[in-house]
Design a protein that fits this description.
Elements (H helix, E strand, L loop, with lengths): L4 E5 L3 H13 L3 E6 L2 H10 L4 E5 L8 H12 L3 E5 L4 H7 L6 E4 L4 H18 L12 E6 L2 E6 L5 E5 L2 E5 L4 E4 L3 H8 L4 E5 L2 E4 L5 E3 L2 E4 L2 E4 L2 H10 L4
Parallel strand pairs: 1-2, 1-3, 3-4, 4-5
Antiparallel strand pairs: 6-7, 8-9, 8-12, 9-10, 11-12, 13-14, 14-15
Amino acid sequence: MDNIKIIIIEDEAIIAQDLALTLTKEGYIVSAIAMSYKKAIEALNNNPFDIALVDINLNAEKTGIELGRIIHNQYNKPFIYLTSYSDKETMRSVLPTHPSGYLIKPIKKNDLRNALEIAVYNYLKYHSNPVENRDTKNHFYIKNGKTFVKILKSDIHYVKAFDNYAFLYQKNNKILVTETLKSIESKLSEFNFKRVHRSYLVNINQIEGIEDKSIRIGDQLIPVSRQNQSWFFSSLNVL
């Protein structure tokens, strides 16, 4: 998801403007700022957004909790509550609305950044995009800088382990992901991806040739470990 759009619902002008400035510097797009319940409803109806920041106390009869319920039920979008209260009663009252986060004022820049990244990541991971693709199994989203990029699994040529992370290699691109090779293997195994080496996972459909005991994909020679050679080479369709 490129250019993540955020609606800020906060009744204190100074806090709202400070949040907007921080978010803009972080690379997000602030699509609207609403300072009351009524303005918040208008903002939600009239502005595209990917996530909302919602102040619980709006100094009105209806609170941000009501807005959170609306965002979840009507828009199916993630939102993060902002509040000055950290008591158990307030926490219990917000849980049924399914927030993606809960930040205590004054809000620290790092806390805000981390909460947003986690909320958007989890949303993209567990929700389909009915416009782009109704089959969520053939793609996933990967964070790349400030954006989330849609990756088709069939476009991945191979995956290489890098400590506790991994690089996904496409035709003219590579992306570092914060998951282990084992974790990625579990998500790609049903798509003709095979572990041929402790450090490599390959897309069988992208293999262009075999040289000695290595696989050639594009300009890259990928070794096949001794323990994998027997089953791997016997599984190939050789005339």
